Amino acid sequence: MEFGYAIKTDLCGTYDMEQGYGFSLPLMRSKVEDMRDSWPGDYFIPAVPTLLMDVPNGNYRVTLTIGSPNRQAVTTVKEGLGRLRLYELKTEAGVVVKKSFAVHVADGQLKLAFSGEAPSVQQVEVMRLASLPTLFLAGDSTVTDQPSFHYPYTGWGQTIGLFLSDGLAIANHACSGRSSKSFIQESRLSRIAKKLRGGDFLVIQFAHNDEKESDIGTEPFTTYPTYLKQYLDLARDTGAYPLLVAPMHRRFFEEDGTIRNTHGDYIEAMRQLAEQEGIPFIDLAARSKEYFEELGEERTKQVFLWTEAGQYEYLPEGTQDNTHFTEPGAVEIARLIVSEIEGKGIEPLQRHLLPGAEALVASRIE
Predict the structure, then answer these.
(1) Of 104, 173, 324, 352, which is the active-site residue?
(2) Does 327 qualify as catalytic in the annotation?
(3) Is 141 a residue of the active site?
(4) Which residue among the candidates 30, 38, 120, 141 is catalytic per the annotation?
(5) Is 255 a residue of the active site?
(6) Domains (ranges, CATH) in the chain?
(7) For the segment 214-272, what is each residue's pLDDT rounded down to a tens digit?
(8) Would you say the pTM of this structure is higher than 0.85?
(9) Is the peptide bond before 69 cis (omega within 30 degrees of 0)?
């Protein structure tokens, strides 16, 4: 089924259930990740109204007309659960451009939010396209769509869309605190199985919580690959394309300036499984090690969530988190993944990257 419509934002008022669209602000920002009820406008500081559009569940191509006839505009766009789709796009006065991306809707509403120094979105066009494939993500807190109250905590699943074409939608099923084992035990993989289709993609990144000595932990060369294989089998049985991603390193530096490996044998275990099963493998551990060591101990604080007291409501006392990312940091982690997809020529996923994607998205790490 395919259908579409267009909305001129300057004529769009407050959300109305009868007309099925409009701008609105939620009563409060969402604090519970598993509720999946955050609005994209709440991932800005200060919060901005969210454009709500009542639509059937499915995949959509969204085309935005961006720019102003009489002023320079700087526009950032987020959709769904705070997923970045355009990052500080600059347009000169009188210049109007069209930008498209794909959106996966699972709750009956397509949600968009526009912000920036001087945002200007003139029109929103929405087209439902059942043929669009979906990029499913399975992982932990470093991948997940963090709830809006936790902003600026950001998983790379919320930023990978900056680098994707309008031919691939994102369904991020990652969840904080989960291991390859507990993700399955909680039926989260079963939820993916109900939606996964031939031609879709399933990206799998686990290890941070597999390493824990608890009920959710696994052993690197026995139970860890056994659980991971269930993800691979699901993808192959469905006709989808699996991709294994080794975990990025934490921000722990040795005295000589090198990154300490806190993942033990899990990286090698995933590599061996990928070779045995003939599955594409991205060594994000190696790439993140190179990147963090290049930045150094001080500059990597911008990648990870190091904040001052009073800087964010969620973190009134500040934090020194060496595992999770800021939004600019999550952009850089996604960039490393995209670089590996391009460098290794991982098909057909590579076809869904924006041409010159890495150069299009500027780094915000100083």
Answers:
(1) 324
(2) no
(3) yes
(4) 141
(5) no
(6) 4-128 (2.60.120.430), 134-360 (3.40.50.1110)
(7) 999 999 999 999 999 999 999 999 999 999 999 999 999 999 999 999 999 999 999 99
(8) yes
(9) no
Close Cβ partners of 176 (under 8 Å, ≥ 6 residues apart)? 33, 140, 141, 144, 146
Read off the pLDDT of residues 195-209 as tens digits, 9 standing for 90 and up: 999 999 999 999 999
Q: Count how many residues are written for the chain.
A: 366
Residue 114 backbone phi and psi in degrees, to 5:
-125, 130
d(CA 23, CA 39): 11
Q: How many Å apart are CA 58 and CA 1, to the nearest integer?
A: 10
123 backbone dihedrals φ, ψ, rounded to 5°? -150, 145
Q: Active site residue: 294, 298, 317, 366, which one?
A: 317
Say if CB 135 and CB 83 are below 8 A apart: no
